[in-house]
Design brief:
The chain is an alpha/beta fold. Helix content is 42%, strand content 19%. It folds into 2 domains: 6-141 and 261-306, Rossmann fold; 143-258, Rossmann fold (3-Layer(aba) Sandwich), CATH 3.40.50. Bound molecules: 6-O-phosphono-beta-D-fructofuranose.
């Protein structure tokens, strides 16, 4: 195989804190190997539009601590079609690109797999607050998002305790309960609701009634956006059934996607970005780099995009036990 002279990088799906340090690591690792890097703006939308910009080491100065992504991101429907993927490949060839690093969530990694299957060299980096990607212990962005959730819980507890209230906090995560479950355990919530482990309104009511009768000054429930019943149904049920605490709702929304990446995400993003380029330049393709224990390992993009992460039963029971 001829050696690579020019690679490209894009960030896709929802932005996640740590995408910038990952871009920086990609650019500087390639530069150190004498390889040019092009950034593709707005993910597959920019790929189809030919929106490429040369990124030098100086262009990524000062971004290691910045949230979001300097390359911007987008969700693109056209790239889900074979025709769109072929057009994307054509754009890469037009720009003389020899390989691509895709940083993003499951949709972006599926796009990466499609390009690989068309014969183009691609390595994926998991980047999403949801932590729903199979093949890595943690995705880039998840830890920082979790810390934002903990900050919100700690602040809500102050007001909850002052008013003897129960706060219901909805957090993002799409169909994955990771952020809600860990937020609940680490924030000391009375209950957690996640899509992978359905709960009934009656069960929640009982938990809160018992917490009230045991003398708790306040309560907290962390609800994943993908869980059922939905947060407003829970609030209505609890208000109607007089569990003791007054109920208030907070929906954290996109706040969790923002902010400066923490130490964990900066390190993870840097290690994954470096490894992705090293592997791409070594002729690898169709793989995703990820955190396996303390080491950076790889899985196939096929597995990463088709296998389901299992929710940890140990954490579910820990959440219940520690809430007592
Ligand atoms: O995948 C990241 C995520 O923030 C999910 O947690 C959430 O469901 C979704 O993206 C929100 O998407 P959008 O930014 O398009 O509203």
């Amino acid at each position: 195989m001829a050696s690579m002279r020019r690679i490209a990088v894009l960030t896709g799906g929802g932005d996640a804190p740590g995408m910038n340090p990952a871009i920086r690591a990609v650019v500087r690792t390639a530069a150190a190997a004498g390889v040019e890097v092009y950034g593709i703006r707005q993910a597959y939308t920019g790929l189809l539009a030919g929106d490429f910009e040369r990124l030098t080491s100086r262009d990524v100065s000062g971004i290691i601590g910045r949230g979001g992504t300097i390359l911007q991101t987008a969700r693109n429907l056209e790239f889900k079609t074979v025709q769109g993927q072929k057009r994307g490949l054509r754009r890469l060839n037009e720009h003389g690109i020899d390989g691509l690093v895709v940083i993003g969530g499951d949709g972006s990694l599926r796009g990466a797999l499609a390009l690989h299957e068309l014969g183009f060299p691609v390595v994926g980096v998991p980047g999403t607050i949801d932590n729903d990607i199979w093949g890595t212990n943690m995705a880039v962005g998840t830890d920082t998002a979790l810390n934002t959730i903990l900050d919100a819980i700690d602040k809500l507890r102050d007001t909850a305790a002052s008013h003897e209230r129960c706060f219901l906090l909805e957090v993002m995560g799409r169909n994955c309960g990771y952020l809600a479950l860990m937020g609940g355990i680490l924030g000391g919530a009375e209950f957690v609701m996640i899509p992978e482990h359905p709960t009934t309104l009656e069960e929640i009511g009982k938990v809160l009634e018992n917490a009230y009768m045991r003398g708790k000054s306040h309560a907290m429930g962390v609800i994943a956006e993908g869980a059922t019943p939905k947060i407003h149904e829970v609030a209505e049920y609890l208000s109607q059934h007089e569990v003791g605490f007054e109920v208030r709702i907070t929906v954290l929304g996109h706040v969790v996607r923002g902010g400066s990446p923490g130490a964990f995400d900066r390190l993870l993003a840097t290690r994954l970005g470096v490894k992705a380029v090293e592997l791409l330049l070594a002729g690898e393709s169709g793989i995703m780099v990820g955190l396996h224990g303390r080491e950076i390992g790889t899985v196939s993009l096929e597995d990463a995009t088709t296998k389901q992460r299992a929710v940890s039963e140990e954490y579910i029971s820990m959440a219940e036990i520690l809430a007592k």
